Amino acid sequence: MSVFLDACRVRPTAYTPIWIMRQAGRYLPEYRKLRAQVDFVKLTRTPELAAEATLQPLRRYELDAGILFSDIMTPLQGMGIELEFEPGPIVRDPIRTDEQIDALPPLVPERDVPFVLEAVRLVRANAPRMTPLIGFAGAPFTLFCYLVCGRPSKEFAAARAFLYSHPASAVRLLTHLADAMAAYLRAQAHSGAQALMLFESWGGLLALKEYRRFALPAVQRTVAALRDLEVPIIYYANQGSALMQAVAELDVDVVGVDWRTSLAANRQILGASKAIQGNLDPAALFASPAELRVQADAVLADAGRAPGHIFNLGHGIWPDTDPDAVARLIDHVHERTARD
Ligand code: CP3
Question: pTM to 2 decimals?
């Protein structure tokens, strides 16, 4: 077992594990070097290169988990959705009609995204220190946002309007995405992923009532289809503090939260059977070394001493972050939490 996987199971650990959302990416000079030669989509579709990008942060830092280098939109490309990254995903024909929803094929991972599964196998075979690998997918509502709007947005207005104007069609699309992501995550686990994470990056746009009506049943459908696997499931709810009562009903092992909310308060709501992941503000990595330690200690104090805390940022690391600040953060969390 690993410290990270034990923490996912709310078991006591020798120290608090840490990994960083978006740890494989543009803040690393070695990633920028790779990216200078190959475009992003080719990186995600070439198993050796996706594995290399996954392994880069694991070689540089004493991270307690790796996350597969890919994108939440990659499986949708496998389902025939045409898109480009600029650098956020741009969908050529946003989904707005029943005809488009009905024409969406199911996802057959071995056929549609074999390169992802091969990347998982390569990472597992080459991970330093046997670091466990997290496979991931977008949560259905977050994918729905990109598919309906067609591009990144602050409000995802067209997607949220669609929920009210075409609720039955919205549920059909969400259900289709839920089943596709269940198949996708299952295939990643079969290929060697030791934990599975669902990114609900835009769930926080919804009122609790709409979250309960649309987003929650869809992600619970994905989770339920995976519960026969011996793999912990992490659900990251960005800006989800107003939704936590509903998130607590999800049958997941770990809930990831952003920095706007208190770990202690969320642990109260989630209960002692779920682990919590987070939640340092990505901006805190720009503090002086002494202030970064103060900020990290505040997160640790907020998490408390009970088992089941996985240190992370509250959202993805920013591309202009100093890689040395990441090293200092990881070392500090490990040293500060070391237990005999
Ligand atoms: O290190 C890792 O976390 C693994 C790789 C990973 C990427 N995207 C690579 C990527 C993961 C886990 C994701 C998830 C993802 N993608 C999410 C959920 C997490 C979140 O941030 O809320 C979302 C919403 C997306 C959609 C997406 N893809 C956006 C908004 C962007 C552009 C902005 C950005 O943050 O870079 C992308 C492109 C993308 N995905 C890049 C990377 C490394 C940049 C592409 C490049 O190198 O040019």
Answer: 0.97
